[in-house]
Amino acid sequence: MKEIEKTLENKNVRPTAMRILIYKYMAEKEVAIALTDIENTFTKADRTTLYRTLKTFEEKGIVHQIDDGTNISKYALCEPGCNCELDQDLHLHFHCSNCDETVCLTAHKLPHINLPEGYIAEDANLVIKGICDKCSS
Q1: In the chain, where are the structural domains located?
Q2: Which of 49, 64, 92, 96 has an alpha carbon within 20 to 30 A of 131's alpha carbon?
Q3: Rounded to two decimals, what is the model's pTM?
């Protein structure tokens, strides 16, 4: 728990009990998590508290949001040293059409894309869809 507290403090996030629990829960998962997944796990917690925690984590660069085409926002912990910068930290995401899970493929970085003059990138998200390694074996 001390490591989680230190991680949150390094990102200027006060390590409350709920924030520590949500971070720990996300760290134990190998897939991106939807707000409903967190709500179903922490049934006694207030939905607004859970949502605000995710938003705080996103604003502080602790998690990144993934749009995997399911119309449900999913969140995954950022890698150590990640700043969620378009030029440096973009990686592939994979959405399995069989089990409906989305995973970060952080070892597969996206190259820098040169946009035409006058275009300003604000966000980028590359999701590959198919069958994951668990479902294909």
Answers
A1: 2-136
A2: 64
A3: 0.84
